[in-house]
Automatic annotation (TrEMBL):
Positions of the Conserved oligomeric Golgi complex subunit 5 helical domain: 2-46
Cross-referenced Pfam families: COG5_C
Listed InterPro entries: Cog5, COG5_helical
Transmembrane segment boundaries: none
Name this polypeptide is given: Conserved oligomeric Golgi complex subunit 5 helical domain-containing protein
Length: 117
């Protein structure tokens, strides 16, 4: 079908552009990597809106779950990079709340307030 051919071309172009951004520009790569959850949500919302806006009775859906997965797979490169930096970011946060000399002791009131906030 024509729509299948167009979708395949669109997904291929999108994935190619995302890969190109990842390898070409370190600043954009960093923005998309750190902001991956936001990027993922934006792509997911776009696909959901397309599905909702093209839902016509008696017509096959414009986007199947397989097609959505294909589009989301185009940003997998940023997901991998995001998951790579998560442990170090978490460690930095833990180290800022519980400095190394105070480990094993009861946290101060200020430390508990920082954790809660």
């Amino acid at each position: 079908m024509l729509t299948d051919r167009i979708w395949k071309a669109l997904v291929k172009s999108f994935a190619s552009q995302m890969k190109s951004i990842f390898t070409a520009s370190s600043s954009v790569k960093e923005i998309f990597t750190v902001g991956y959850p936001k990027l993922f949500a934006m792509i997911e919302n776009l696909l959901e809106r397309i599905s909702r806006d093209t839902d016509v009775k008696g017509v096959p859906p414009a986007l199947s779950s397989e097609r959505k997965d294909q589009m989301i797979a185009g940003i997998d490169i940023f997901q991998t990079a995001f998951l790579t930096i998560c442990p170090s970011r978490l460690s930095d946060l833990v180290n800022s709340v519980f400095p190394m000399p105070s480990r094993g002791t009861v946290p101060s009131r200020e430390s508990i307030l920082r954790i809660v906030s």
